[in-house]
Every structure is written in structure tokens, then in C-alpha cells.
Amino acid sequence: MEGEELTEQETALYDRQIRVWGADAQRRLTRAAILVYGINGAVAEFCKNIVLAGVGSLTLVDDRGVTEEALSANFLIPPDETLYEGKSLAELCSDSLKDFNPMVRVSAERAGDISGFSGDFYSKFDVVVVSCCTLTTKKLINDKCRRLSKRVAFYSADCRYSSGEIFVDLHSYKYTKNKLDEAIECELQYPSFEQEATAVSWSKLPRKMSKLYFAMRVIEKFEEKEGRSPGGVSITDLPAVLKLKNELCEAQSLKESQIPDALLERLVSSQIEFPPVCAILGGVLGQEVIKAISGKGDPLKNFFLFDAFDGKGVIEDISSRDA
Amino acid sequence: MASQQQLSAVKGAKVLMVGAGGIGCELLKTLALSGFQDIHIIDMDTIEVSNLNRQFLFRRSHVGLSKAKVARDAVLRFRPNINITPYHANVKDPDFNVDFFKKFNVVLNGLDNLDARRHVNRLCLAADVPLVESGTTGFLGQVTVHLKGKTECYECQPKPAPKTYPVCTITSTPSKFVHCIVWAKDLLFAKLFGDTTQDNDLNVRSSDAAGSSENSKDVFERRKDEDIEDYGRRIFDHVFGYNIEMALSNEDTWKNRNRPRPIYSKDALPEKSIKQNGSVEKNGSTDDPSSVSAMASLGMRSPQDVWSLMENSKVFLEALKLFFTTREKEIGSLSFDKDDQLAVEFVTAAANIRASSFGIPLHSLFEAKGIAGNIVHAVATTNAVIAGLIVIEAIKVLQNDTKNYRMTYCLEYPTKNMLLMPVEPFEPNKSCYVCSETPLSLEINTYQSKLRDFVEKIVKAKLGMHSPIIMHGSALLYEVGDDLEEDMVANYAANLEKVLSELPSPVTGGTMLTVEDMQQELVCNVNIKHREEFDEEKEPDGMVLVGWSQPSSTEKKEENHRVSDVGTSNSSRPIAELNEDAEISTMEETDVVPTKKRKLSTASKNATSPSSSKVPADTDNHGKVEEIDDDDDDDDVVVMLDGNPDNTKTRRVVTSKNLCV
Ligand SMILES: [Zn+2]
């Protein structure tokens, strides 16, 4: 593999993980640039993981200030309010993350209007992770990444109280898989978020499909329809959410029992993320990003869903039934 | 998950965490974020550089400090109003007794060694406190819940045995690189730099050879006024040349094996490169012995490179020279340490030269270090996921939500679409000697085996007791303690050397021994069955404990196989036991009683039963070189051979003997 050798310092620091994924993968990691747009608890966990793993750079964008919700599951925010003055969430988190691994360049950027970021901006990165954004913004960034000639891996991470999901779009992805000492070249085609979240007909999805997948779509739609900020649904919205569910089920010819009311109730019952779920989503997301950068291991395709209620961490490949 | 109820359960809970390492850091953070207010954390380790890639509460400036204390301070920085009580101590300390454990609502383990895990399991059972247990290796991990009487205990399923290698494989017929590493580290390194009064199998073949005029004891000693370069070459030629020639002379050995090739320094090195680069001057200036490096003085950079035979030979000679020129004071008391750069270089080079002889592929220093140090693979992400799962289970435990307890496996490849797979916990194993009162049976030759054999091989090694009391009916045969009367100590010492049938209260077939560990509050009854003969290969202990089993290799295969069809029923066990690498045996500093252990183990060497072994008399105590994982809380493990009395970090390894053919 081309590129610089790892330094002695890097070898010592990353010793244990190099033993897991090899020196080549580590070298690729140290050259990778990551963009994070929107920092929820799960993404804060992800940032920690990826900084520890030793990526080249991490750029944070989140103009919001500190809120009670943000504080609850984000250990990167110091509890000292006097530090918040004039600082965005991204800046505060960036300060904490820098400390985790001096070999990673961590920085914060102001977004202003998201449409202000052109394709050129995204092309500086190898990986883009979004959270806490509206459906429109998610689709927009996903779309901009897909239009680039260079492959930019796109991920979104959403946590709703004790459940959450990760969406992965690696566009067209080639990797090597080791099976019984034999290296096999593999290629995967990923659909965009828009194709999946909106275009796939629910009735065509298998019956054993994770119910959480549908529930997440319902709430996402509700937020968009009502013009809510991301995560801005509460228990008082439950009747309206259930109504929307019924409408969607009818339109998509899906049995209403496929999206239990109790599940939706749970998802909207608290606007605070459940920290153990953040740790799990952030861990899985970190691992997936490391896989995508290093080209080692089977990447997740294309949804990961976790529900603390049943403890299952499920992968759903929704694109396979597409087309 | 009723939020309010959950919150109050969490707020009022008093939690004990054992381990502030890879899982521990993540766990402490997630507990604090989840609203836990009263967390106690025990860890005896201090912070090392190789921890920093995943133990995110620690910084470079913390290297050398207590993990428990630094972790506490780091978490208080983002959650200043909670109580975290750190203990920089060994969980096996008597202070952490049953009463201590009883104070907690739940115990959460973030350990990575079997010994401490078993200990905590027993204390939790005795104190009747629920235990959430966890482990990770690379991308794999698991979380299990143990509640006395409701679910299986940590020890209901037998744990995998440490790998062992027959001594002849190490001394004469290596076939894998790991055999060369064990030879280089446990035999050659120990012989040259360790305590020379210890038995060592290194010369097994040469001293065996008829007509050998050389006294094997003298070969390794540097002669008076011997030039260091000459000495290095002489050792090289002896161990890689002469010893191989001697081994070759035993034709029987090579009937079905590839014959090794003797390697002499004159063949491995260009004629005049003997005088190597002026390393001594370069290294002489530094005061820190750990910075001395043969690679550095030879201008070799990457630990990832696989060196040629010539390079290995150079490193071998250079490292040996550097030991004698810059670290002479340590010679005679050194034991292998994976963090000792020069030791790793020496062992890598020696193992590679030996591998060359035997046609075994060579390895880089990085790889060799991993094997020699038995370093367990670890990544931050798996630890984070596992910590999240631990907290989810802990909250269920606090809410008494027994029916929803799950053991969860974190998989590298999805099974049934699942990356995180919950399984209903198993019921307690009715024949578990730890959580049920089922007696064990021991087949033993009561006319040959001494009480010491029973104490070492069964009570300590198999039953995992640290301070045992052994009773036969009402007769006290043995106990350990600080407050014993002198005459009792003498009495017990005498008992140890007696064969079972000649003890003051004779232990013969049909009798029963009661073994108790006061701290663990564990009592086991052992029915004695007399048996004359034991298979030296298959039953090297010379005794067999029935009702306590280690999985054989076939069982293990089957368990692994079952990974593929998990989830179909609750009765299938998804993964045998993850973390096999990680969870074996003593921790570097967990071992509070290294002195005692050492004393016992040294003595036990002389207690092995007679055998028809062809191994020469001076080596007959080493039957098997057993790989013992010597773990710091979550990684680093060391393989050691018997007889490192100055090594407080490692436990040793030898069982009985074994035939070399
Ligand atoms: Zn048990």
C-alpha cells in the first residue's frame, strides 16, 4: 500500500487496534477526512470513537447552542455554562474532542444556511455523517454527496429515546473480503436515502421487516409535515402521529399492526436520547465508518436498527427489493 | 420501559463496577449519562500508552496513574454532581468481602481475566447480588446477567483451558511460529538473562547426546574476559547450530518430519559484519534502559517488516550485546516483558532464526510481540456497544424485570440479520459446583499424589480458590491465613508433602474432602475415587476432576459451529465463550500474592509423579509449557515458563511431564 509509514508514536498508540484491522487500514484511517453535520448523543459517541481510532481530520458543523436535550446524552459538552457564551455546539464538542487524541485534527465550522455548502465543500471529505436534521436536509446532503465524482460515504444516525437507526449510503462500493484465506473482491450498490425512505413500497417489504423501520419513517414524515425541528415530537403529538400512521398504512397497503401504537408511543415519549442507545449506535456507526475507510470487512447495508426494548440490533437491506 | 420508574430505580441505585479499562471507561461514562448517582469502581491497574486508543477517559499525561481514580475525575468533569468512589486495589483483596458486595444493588464486570471474574461471580453469589458480566475481543462481545437461583452463574459453563504445548514440541519439534516464540522467550531468554538457578529445558537435546563433552551449564555463561561479540556468536552457534545438529542425530524424531537445518553465525551473516554499528556509544548515553533498542542501533525502522535471516541474526547479536553492555545489572533477574523493547527484539530475532531452521514462516516484530505478549485485540467501538448493553441490563436488574433479562452477543457478521443478538438467559446448571451444592468427584492415586498436588492442581488451578481450607471430616488438613499459629503452619507444611493415604486422617477411595474458601464463601465437597493409572498425554495432572470439565477441542468446534444457527431456540448457546484469549488467568497486578503463589508452584515442581519419560533428569519437571494469559485488565497477556521467581507479573505454567518422541 502506498503512503507514509505509521510513525513509532502511532504504532504504539494504535497497537491494539492495528492487531484487529492491520497497518494498511490504520494508514488509510490516518488520511481520512470526516464531516459531521449535527451532533446528537449518538454522534457524540461516534466522534469519540473515530477520534480515538485515529482518523486524519474531523470537521464538526452544528450551529445550535447548548440545550437541555443536548446536554443529557452528550458527554462532550462541559457542564460549565460560562463556557457556552458565543459558542456553537460544534465548537464546544470540538474543544473536548481535540483533547482525546492530539494526532487528529478536529475543527468546527459554522454552517449558516446549509444550502450554502456546495458540492465542492463535501468533496473535501471521505465520510459525511448527519444527525438532528430535517428530512429535507438529510436528502439534500445525501444527494450532494452522491453527485460527486469521488465517492463520499454518507451516514445518518437518529436516536428517538430508547430506539435508533443508522442509514448507510456507500453509493458504489468495492471491497475485499477474506474468506478462508482467500481474498474475494466484492461490490455493493447502495440506494440513496430518498429512494428508500420515500420510494420503496412498504407492502413489498417482507413481513418480518423490523417494525422500528416503519415507525421511524412515520415520525420522520410527521416532523416534516408539521414543520417540526428534528426530534421535536412529544407525547402530546401521539394522537396526530397515530392518525398519520393509519393514513400511511392505508396508502402503502400495510397492515396497521405492523407499526404497533405502543412502539410509536415509546418513540415520542421522551425527547431525550437514552444514553446506552447512543453508545450502541455510536459504536456501530464508528465501526461502519472504519470499515468503509479501510475497505476491510462487510459494510452494513443499508439500515441498522436498535431497540433497547427487545435488545435486537437488526440490519435491514431495503434496496434489495427495490427495482 | 416506564421512564419515571426507571429513573428513580437508577437514581437510588448503588452500583459496583469492577474494572476501569476498555469496557470500564465506556461503562462509567454511560452510567453517569444515564443518571446513576452512586458508582463505586475497583481497578488495580495503572494507565499505559497502549490503553489510550480506546480508554478515552485517559490522556498521555495520565500514564502511570490509577485507572479507577483518573476515570472518576474524568467523568466528574461532565457530570460533577454524582458520587464516584474509586478503589485503586485488587478486587481479590480481603476488604472486598461478602459484606462489601452486599452493599450494592448490582455489580457490573468490565474485567478481562478469568481469575477475577470467577472471584467476583462467587462473591456475588454469596452476597446474593445480581451480576452483569461482559467481555470483548476485537469486534466480538457479550453481556450476560447472573442472578442467583434464576439464571446460570458465570461458572455454570466450563471455561476454555489455556493452550498448552508439549515440552518436546518446544524444545525439539516446533511446527508453528508460536512454538519458536515460546522457545525463544521461555527457554532461551530465560536461560541467558533470567535466573540461572531455575531449571530450563533449553539443552534437552544436546545434553542428551552421548559423548557431549560440553557441560551444558557452562555453555551459556560468558567466560572470563570473553569478548561480547565472540560470546554472542558462540551462543548463536550453540543454540541454532550445534543443538540442531544434536537433535538431528536422533533419527527417530525425523522419520515423519522435515529435518531442520542447523544455522551457524558465519553462514547467516556476511563475513565482517560482525563488528556492528557503533551501537553502544549511541545507547550508552541514555539512562533509561527501556529505550535501548537493537533495531534503533542497526537503523531498522518498521516493526511491521519481516526481517531476513541475516537481519534477524544481526538483531539477535546486537540485542544480546546491548543486554550485556547497557543492562548488565539486570542480567540474572530479567523476565520477559512485552513492554521491554530490547527483550521483544531479542525474542523476535531468536524465534525467527529458529523458525528459519525448521522451515516455519518468519514474522515481523509487531506480530511476534503480539504472540509473545499474548496481546488481546481490542477496539473502542465494541467496548462502547457492550457498555451500552450492560447499562440496559443493569436497569432491568434494578427494576426486577427478571423476565426480560437477556444475554446479548455482539457479532462481527450478522446472524439472522442481527448484529446484536439477545438470547434468553440459561437456567442455573444443576451440577455447577459453584452455584449448586453438587459434590465433585476426583479420580486420583491416593497412594502417590500428595496433598500439595491436590491443592495446586485442583483447589487452585481448577476450583479457582485463593485461600483454601481443606477438611477431611472434622480434621483440618490445610489452611492459609496470616493469623495461623506457628505449629499449625508447620503442620500444614508437613501435610502438603504427604501422599493422601498417609495424611493424619487418611484420604482414600470412598472418602470425601471438603474444600472451602472463606473470602469467596464457597464450599465444595469432593468425593475421592482411587485410581492407579493415568494417561500422561491426556491426563497430565495425574488426576481427573469429574463434574468439572474443560471443553475438549471437539466440543469447542461444535460450539463454534452453533454460532450459525443461533436464535432458533433458546436452548442453543450462540457462542461458546468469547474472549477466550482475554479471559484466562492472572492479571499482571491482580496477583496480590505472587510470592506465595510462586513458592507453592516452585515446590510443586518437585512433586510430580515418576515417569518413564526420556527427558533427562535435570529437566524432568517441565512436562508442558502451558500458555497462561497474564492479563492487564483488558489486554496484554504473557506466556511464561516455570521458574521466574523475580517476575511478579507472571504466573507460571508447568504441569507434569510428557514424552518426547
Ligand atoms: Zn453456576
From TrEMBL, chain A:
Belongs to the ubiquitin-activating E1 family. InterPro entries: ThiF/MoeB/HesA (IPR045886), ThiF_NAD_FAD-bd (IPR000594), Ubiquitin-activating_enz (IPR035985). Gene3D superfamilies: NAD(P)-binding Rossmann-like Domain. GO terms for biological process: protein sumoylation. Coiled coil: none annotated. Pathway: Protein modification; protein sumoylation. GO terms for molecular function: SUMO activating enzyme activity. This is Ubiquitin-like 1-activating enzyme E1A. The keyword Nucleus applies. One of its GO terms (cellular component) is cytoplasm. It is found in: Nucleus. Keywords: Acetylation, Ligase, Nucleus, Ubl conjugation pathway. Residues 14-311 form the THIF-type NAD/FAD binding fold domain. Heterodimer of SAE1A or SAE1B and SAE2. The complex binds SUMO proteins via SAE2.
Automatic annotation (TrEMBL), chain B:
Residues 578-591, 627-637 have a biased composition (Acidic residues). GO terms for cellular component: cytoplasm; SUMO activating enzyme complex. It holds the Pfam family UAE_UbL. The active site is at C168. Keywords: ATP-binding, Metal-binding, Nucleotide-binding, Nucleus, Transferase, Ubl conjugation pathway, Zinc. Residues 442-534 form the Ubiquitin/SUMO-activating enzyme ubiquitin-like domain. One of its GO terms (molecular function) is transferase activity. Residues 6-433 form the THIF-type NAD/FAD binding fold domain. Zn(2+) binds at C153, C156, C432, C435. It comes from the Eukaryota. Residues 201-221, 255-295, 533-661 are annotated as: Disordered. Residues 291-369 form the Ubiquitin-activating enzyme SCCH domain. One of its GO terms (biological process) is protein sumoylation. CDD domains: Uba2_SUMO (cd01489). Residues 201-214, 275-294, 601-614 have a biased composition (Polar residues). It is found in: Nucleus. Pathway: Protein modification; protein sumoylation. ATP binds at residues 19-24, 43, 51-54, 67, 112-117. InterPro entries: ThiF/MoeB/HesA, ThiF_NAD_FAD-bd, UAE_UbL_dom, Ub-E1_IAD_1, Ub_act_enz_dom_a_sf, Uba2, UBA_E1_SCCH, Ubiquitin-activating_enz. Residues 554-564, 617-626 have a biased composition (Basic and acidic residues). Belongs to the ubiquitin-activating E1 family. Heterodimer. This is SUMO-activating enzyme subunit. It comes from Punica granatum (Pomegranate). The gene is LOC116204067.
